[in-house]
Design a protein that fits this description.
By secondary structure, this protein is mainly β. Helix content is about 5%, strand content about 45%. The chain has a single domain, classed as Jelly Rolls (Sandwich), CATH 2.60.120.260. The protein has one helix spanning about 25-30; strands spanning about 15-25, 30-35, 40, 45-50, 50, 60-65, 70-80, 95-100, 100-105. The strands form three sheets. The chain has a four-stranded antiparallel beta sheet. A three-stranded antiparallel beta sheet has the order 6-2-9, with no helix packed on it. A two-stranded antiparallel sheet has the order 3-8. Strand 4 (about 45-50) and strand 5 (about 50) form a beta hairpin. The relative contact order is 0.34. The mean pLDDT is about 95.
């Protein structure tokens, strides 16, 4: 990963980053999983196993991917779109700079007492 400007400084548009990874049923049980995209310039849309999730429009670039993940092999694609600035000769960092991390979150249920 890295900024597109290192090899195509004037490029404005989109790029798709794709990877696969395996999860077990135990990895998924009793938790939520959030994909943390790290540093993104400028807009990211995540697709997991063919399911397009809500766009990540600003920092922190995180997406809850729990509902789209399955036990076994999972495919994640991140489409990143930058602004028109680079094509207009205002060169800005662009792309998925990361680091990208899948973060497990425990699901907790609690009862709150009355406020006095």
């Amino acid at each position: 990963m890295g900024s597109w400007t290192t090899f195509a400084p004037a490029y404005s548009g989109s790029a798709i980053y794709t990877t696969t990874f395996d999860l077990t049923a135990a990895d998924l049980a009793g938790r939520r999983l959030t994909l943390d995209l790290g540093e993104v310039h400028d807009l990211a849309t995540v697709t997991v196993n063919g399911v397009t999730l809500p766009a990540a429009l600003w920092h922190p670039y995180t997406v809850d991917v729990t509902s789209a993940l399955t036990a076994g092999t999972n495919t994640v694609s991140v489409r990143v779109t930058n602004t028109l600035a680079n094509s207009r000769n205002k060169i800005l960092p662009s792309g998925l700079l990361g680091p990208v991390t899948l973060r497990p979150q425990a699901v907790l249920t609690t009862t709150l007492g009355a406020i006095r």
